[in-house]
Amino acid sequence: MTLPYQKIKDIIFGINPMIFSKREIQEKQIQPASLDLTLGDRVYRISSSFLPKPNESIWEILKARTLYDFELKDGTILEPNSSYIIPLSEYVDLAPGIYAHANPKSSIGRVGLFVRLLCDHTPRFDYIPPGYKGQLYLEVIPLDFVVKIHPNLSCNQIRFRTTRPYKVQEAELRLAHAKYGILFNQAGISMTQDDLIVRDQGLMLTVDLESRDVVGFRAKHDTTKAIDIGKVGEYNPRDFWEPIIRPESGELILVPGNFYLLASQERVSFPPCFAGEMASYDPSSGEMRSHYAGFFDPGFGFDVIGADSGTTAVLEVRAHNVPFRLTRGQVICKMIYEHMLEEPDELYSAGFGSSYTGAGPKLSKHFKQTWN
Fold first, then answer.
1. 210 vs 250: CA distance, rounded Å
2. pLDDT tens-digit profile of 196-234?
3. For an engineered disulfide with 144, which of 61, 110, 219, 299 has Cβ 3.0 to 4.6 Å away?
4. Does a structural domain hold residue 83?
5. What's the whole-model pTM score?
6. Residues labelled catalytic
7. Are residues 35 and 132 both part of a single domain?
């Protein structure tokens, strides 16, 4: 099960802490069901992406594969399609019954910045095994834009879990929908049980290509301008994105190499007893990757008064090796609901990171709300 806000505080500030930092951990790093990690002060440009073998440390690989390294300062530039490793400020000493998964923050995924956590002796990305003790590292690959980063910047987050099963099964999903409402249409009306598509422990969502004039955005891949990841509301969207106008045919062709922001046709809700994560790639949905970033916290799209109508999920989409046709209402991704160990003391809807609630596709917080 997933640890909530108050339990994360306990394993940071309690009598027997499991999470430490070279800097002081700030309470603002603690989210309803996750902890924001922060960049250290050194960058290693590597020759290729990698995973360690069970007997290898990350530092051993860096000594062999680093092309050059440099100090991470305010405004450090990272070039597109280059691989970097940055040691994180945080490190852990987990108890045997506690493990963690990592995920990029929503604002990071929405600018095509591909980040994955690494730890010693662990041949898996974004996974910290039970009982792990040691340093954490972040692989950073800008895929679409030149970016500027800073020390102490949060690019990813980790969710701590006990070794008890955490995924919500189909029967439990349907009971939760009957009790709270977890899936709504664009008008905010709760969908029927027959409308819920549940496959392989996940709730399937479909793509919206018709409910608004602009159904998404396509990245321009302009390498003459840089996005400062530390700034909010700084950039004119037109300099970096092209709006995708609602296709009259109800079809959108995804071109390999292009990066798209789209939205789910459904509006989702996470009651306080659940958190969630969107599967980054589901082969049954097509030849594409439909999500890169972001845990869904308890309270996302949920109104504690009980009159909630959900929030659309934003999709970071790339086709693989061939053009791929998306059609109106096509299944595009899988949302996995997970049990909380207990309800968090703080919810997403109570002020935590509420930049991305509402309807339709939304650009990251780095961009202005209006197109000039």
1. 7
2. 989 888 899 999 999 889 999 999 987 788 999 999 999
3. 219
4. yes
5. 0.92
6. 139
7. yes
